[in-house]
Amino acid sequence: MRTVEEVFKESIGVKERVLADTELLDKSRAAAEAMIATYRNGGRVLFCGNGGSAADAQHFAAELSGHFLIERPPLAAEALHGNPSHVTAVANDYDYASVFARALEGSAKAGDVLVAISTSGNAESIVRAAQVAREKGVTVVGMTGATGGRLAQYCDVLLNVPSTDTGRIQESHVAFLHAISEHVEYALFGNQ
After folding, report:
1. What are 109-121's pLDDT values in tens digits?
2. Is the dihedral of CA 79, 22, 123, 13 positive or negative?
3. What contacts 122, CB < 8 A, 6 or more positions away?
4. Which of 91, 99, 150, 187 would you call most buried, defined as having the most Cβ atoms within 10 angstroms of its Cβ?
5. How far apart are CA 7 and CA 126, in angstroms?
6. pTM for the complete prediction?
7. Number of other CB atoms surrounding residue 111 within 10 Å
């Protein structure tokens, strides 16, 4: 068992590796710019994840649809697991791996953005969602761990945190979602 101090040191170490990776930082700005372009063109940003990544998806959607740091109009952002009737019906009638893909088939439009979150990059429901998104002309931003997993091949922008530890990956995902939310918010509404 690791001590609290060890966990904090590991978390700081992962974030230091992120800061040292200029390519990864550039990709985070590219993810924000994709969202900004989508919003300027009347599109939406959609999110999907399982478990803790579902919580991060919902958190990210809330920062955009509510507000993050400045008072401003809401942005169209939705976590795809937010309709339990859809999730349970599709999981029951088809399979769980189809829940996000089916939601995207029904509502995503070319020019939207999908933020697909999976620490391993191998969650079948997330990979299938990214496949459908690409087919529909939706920009895919992946948030994963070090390798990117199978999800990497379907991403236009991949934010692959340099770690294989689920907790450390998720902590960095939250830092990315806050940084991107702030970038989007100020780019669209900073002069109000």
Report:
1. 999 999 999 999 9
2. negative
3. 149, 150, 151
4. 99
5. 28
6. 0.97
7. 15
